[in-house]
Every structure is written in C-alpha cells, then in structure tokens.
What we know:
This protein is mainly beta. The chain has a single domain, classed as Jelly Rolls. It is 0% helix and 51% strand. The chain has strands at 5-6, 34-42, 45-52, 58-62, 66-80, 83-88, 92-95, 100-104, 109-116. Strands 1, 2, 3, 4, 5, 6, 7, 8 and 9 form a nine-stranded antiparallel beta sheet that branches. The relative contact order is 0.24.
Amino acid sequence: MAKETKIGKPDINEVEKSKAHIIVEIIEYMANAVVIKTIIKKSTGNISVMSFDGGEGLSEKTSPFDTFSQIIEGRAEIVIDKISHMLESGQGIVIPAHSSNYIKPNGRFKMVQTIIKSGYE
C-alpha cells in the first residue's frame, strides 16, 4: 500500500492493483496536516485520496484541467469562483478547468480528487 505524505509532496506510489480497497480506510488523519495518497498517476490524469485535520484546508489555486472532488468522510466547504459549496460524505463536485478554487477548513474530512488531463491538447 502507498505511504502517506504531507501536502506539497504527494506520494507517487500507487495503491496495489487488482485488490479491493476501502478508500476511506487507506488514509489516516495526521495532526495539523493535509495528507495525500496517490491511487493512480498517469500522464492523462490522476486520482488521489486526501485527509484534512481540523482547521486545515487548501489555498486558492487554478488548474488548467477539470477536477472532480468527492467527500468520503465528514464535511467540506469548496469555494469555486467565489461561490461556496458545502459538501457532505458521499457528495461530489466538478471544479471546471481555469476556475479559481480553494477548500476552507471545516473540521476533519477525507476526499477523493480526480484530475482529468486528456481533451485539453
């Protein structure tokens, strides 16, 4: 299984293939940190699972690619182009390419993030 890393240094090792995983259980919370674990990393996109300790979020950014974010535990506030979206476990949202976005701290939560790079050539 891939090891966990703090924000800014995602683990490039993928999780084991051809094996069932309970996604919410393959990543743990770390005190005062955002942890990212890579599930799949390809030139056409990647899938990562992330855990956010209480009070932790992600600063504003813009990506040239569409990004799908799904909350798998807890609740999170995702702000896209200054519009707030409160998501709960099981809910997901597509962040359009070239849209400013950030994740506001709102207690502990876990999410899966999928970035699709193909179609932008």
